[in-house]
Design goal:
Blueprint: H1 7-23, H2 30-33, E1 47-54, E2 63-72, E3 75-80, H3 92-101, H4 105-114, E4 117-128, E5 146-151, H5 153-161, E6 183-189, E7 200-201, E8 206-207, H6 217-224, H7 230-235, H8 241-250, H9 258-265, H10 295-304
Antiparallel strand pairs: 1-4, 1-6, 2-3, 2-4, 4-5, 6-7, 6-8
Helix pairs in contact: 3-4, 3-10
Amino acid sequence: MSKWISKDLFNKHLEEREKEKLEKIPRFNRSEIVWPSLKPGTQDEPTVYEGRFLPDPEGFLIKKYYYHMWKSGDKYISLLCPKTHGFGNFCPVCSVVSSLYNGTAEDKKIAREMKRKERYVSNFYIVDDPRDKNAKDEENKMSGKVRLYEFPSKINEKLIAEEDEKEGLRERVWDAGEDGHNFFIKIKLTKPDENKRQFPDYSSSVFSRKSTALGSDKKTEEITKSVYSLKKHVETMEKGLDWIKETLISEGLFKLVEREWSKHYENTAATTTTEDDVPDFTEDDKPSKGDTESEEDILKQLDDLKI
């Protein structure tokens, strides 16, 4: 045996290789694991979807994340906001939005489109998807499958309501067995606003007050083994710094954040905006109340803009 390399050390290296393979984030097709966006009914009649919330393999029930999405030409640009991992993290897109808000009416319109949005994701066993009756083949049908359900805060509020110690269903919301309760997602359209726009209305969504099993013990076990990791799913939305920079340059927006970009990322070897490699804000980085509104104030006001 060579004195320059230890066989035990090399074997440890091979073990690490295998561990990396197991932990590698899969770059899967979203359509294979994410429930397609639910379509609303009419202003008077909701479209109703039925299913059961389920824990993920690591025991997590819900993952909240922030993202940016806007339309550029004929395509949509989307990326995970670094503030998903903590509001102390610097997000170049949030910074761009803050700068645009202080500009013209057209700038404010762009800021509204690009602003940070929140979403939640959970595993969901689909009992009934009414769109299945128009599906071209069995592969496109969703009923009887587990998918990741990405949902808005209005649905999260329904889950929070069931956490009440006296009145709520509590853990039964997530129980795949006979003590579990299905959730009916009822989506209508709101009344048209002043710009004749209508939005999905989830207010009538409700949990069944009757508990039901998803099937036999064998089927229930199969269902619970079909769930996906929420953490890994969110990680797949991460975009590298090079990608973000090139995107902002192509959108003609990089100059708005160039100074901050240099401050936060210059001389860093990081290539992704994860929790570990995004520097924290310092007090000096945040706009003072006296001069400019803070990023959080701006984002809140964007929600109320009528543009």
